[in-house]
Amino acid sequence: MQGLTTITFFEFEQNKPWAFAQMGLVPSKLQQNEGLHFFKLMGTGGGNGFSLWPDFSTYAFLGVWKDQKYADIFLDQNEILQNYYRKSNLVRTIKMLPVKSHGLWSGKNPFKDHVDHQPNPDFPVAVITRATLRPSRLLSFWKSVPAASAAIEKAAGVQYFKGIGEWPFVQQATLSLWDNFDAVKEFAYRSKSHSDIIKKTRRHQWYSEDLFARFHVLSDTGYIKSEGQLR
Question: Which of 1, 66, 93, 161 could bridge across to 176 with cysteines, CB 3.0–4.6 Å?
């Protein structure tokens, strides 16, 4: 499975200072991992997922892989991730294949070269949107966040959504999970709230760089230590 993309969420109860410190320590240690084409270690938003305030208990690792073999070896054996597993209370990994992607993330489109999968109505869907905000547009953007959050929260067919990002306030992304592509299209093209947000984005030129990608979700698994079970 070329272009396999994974995102793993780690939730902490006892080791929040350690998790925060890793944001500055870990990225340089991951650059030489074989088969890892692109990665980001990110914080997450508080509240209901999209928030001006960070969620200091939850962090996310996103990776784009040469194929599933490299992803599985890394997720199962990498010493850095093993440390995350030991110190976190909840781990959730979503595996997905890109279907459509346009735009840039840190000067490249990490998913575009692997988009050769046709939409399948039987698969659940993941959507990643990501942007670097223009400094002069920060206030305008964050004033619109509550409306954006309310719009997706009320959308039919959305299963989960979470704000993610490399840097608070400036480099922002979102991950959302949906029942199918029809639900995504309904929200993207027929929701007045979403349409109004898109118009504001273009009018105010909030972003200096942005990316939009859709995926088939292959698996979504997690482990809660306190319950000792997969979910």
Answer: 161
pLDDT digits (tens, 9 = 90+) for 152-175: 777 888 899 888 988 766 778 889
Q: Which amino acid is at 231?
A: R
3-class secondary structure, 152 = helix
pLDDT of residue 230: 37
* 22-46 CB burial, b ≥16 within 10 A, e <16: beeebeeebeebebbbebbbbbbbb
CA 226 to chain centre: 25
Q: How confident is the model over 29-77, as pLDDT tens digits? A: 888 788 999 999 999 987 665 666 788 999 999 999 998 999 999 999 9
Nearest to 81 by CA among 164, 8, 165: 8
